[in-house]
UniProtKB/TrEMBL annotation:
It comes from Actinoplanes sichuanensis. Its EC number is 2.1.1.-. Keywords: Methyltransferase, Transferase. The keyword Nucleus does not apply. GO terms for molecular function: methyltransferase activity. Gene3D superfamilies: Vaccinia Virus protein VP39. InterPro entries: SAM-dependent_MTases_sf, SAM_dep_MeTrfase_SAV2177_type. The keyword Signal does not apply. It comes from the Bacteria. GO terms for biological process: methylation. This is SAM-dependent methyltransferase.
């Protein structure tokens, strides 16, 4: 794909997400698929907002535990609060490296590269499916001190890696060089809360956007080899809930999430 080619004639997961959250960075192909999705799961925007809160909760939790380096793979379009905004407001010296291979995200990277603290914030144009290219990039090699813990966050991305063995291999490769005390935080799509969600998964796949829904056990398996933090793998609004999570209908949240330590 040529650099900067946004492929506006094809639906894209990040732009569909943007539309469902009321954003403006989307095109007709994205809106068409999004409207079809809403026929199956009209509450999906509730789930997306709960997942965004999950991101903020986990990075805040990890910053409280003393982690000062964050590798966010599959960043997506900037949506406030961004990860570095949450972390650097708590610990201004924190370092954040964002990773995505979407030209639309790249075009908005400037919004991601405005630190709110004193720590560095950088953006790496790389593919989750090629973890070696991430690990050998200067943003990681020189930007991080790999003798100190790093938090790897893979939020609402692994549903696009439909092979479980490949997903676990990606996680294993990315975690391998990180020292003891590092953390893995991820969320992944499920339809166990609402069988109608299978229609949304089917709509994505029929429109050329690969998606898989996983069971709780399937998501727990992604953490294999690491020590899950309480409460384990749960719907994202049940992970250390905040006020905005209270009263959210379980049937409206299509994401499991969890955090584990190395």
């Amino acid at each position: 794909m040529p650099p900067g080619d946004l492929q506006t004639d094809r639906p894209h997961s990040a732009r569909i997400y943007d539309y469902l959250l009321g954003g403006k960075d989307n095109f007709e192909a994205d809106r068409r698929v999004a409207e079809e999705i809403l026929k199956h799961t009209p509450a999906l925007p509730i789930s997306m907002r709960a997942n965004r809160r999950f991101m903020a909760k986990v990075v805040g939790f990890l910053a409280d535990r003393g982690i000062r380096q964050f590798l966010d793979v599959g960043t997506g379009l900037p949506t406030s609060p961004n990860l570095h905004e949450v972390v650097q407001r708590m610990v201004p010296e924190a370092t954040v490296v964002y990773v995505d291979n979407d030209p639309l995200v790249l075009s908005h990277a400037r919004a991601l590269l405005t630190p709110v603290g004193t720590g560095a914030v950088s953006y790496l144009d790389a593919d989750l499916r090629q973890p070696e290219s991430i690990l050998r990039d200067d943003a990681v090699v020189k930007g991080f001190d790999l003798t100190r813990p790093v938090a790897l966050t893979i939020i609402a991305v692994l549903q696009h890696v439909i092979d479980d063995d490949q997903a676990r291999a990606i996680i294993g490769q990315l975690m391998a060089p990180l020292p003891a005390g590092s953390a893995l935080a991820l969320s992944a799509v499920t339809v166990e809360n609402d069988p109608a969600g299978a229609g949304t998964v089917r709509t994505y796949n029929q429109n050329g956007v690969p998606v898989i829904a996983r069971t709780r056990e399937g998501v727990e398996a992604l953490f294999s080899g690491f020590d899950l933090v309480e409460p384990g793998v749960v719907p994202v609004h049940h992970w250390k809930p905040v006020a905005a999570d209270k009263g959210v209908d379980d049937a409206a949240v299509y994401m499991y999430g969890g955090v584990a330590l190395k």
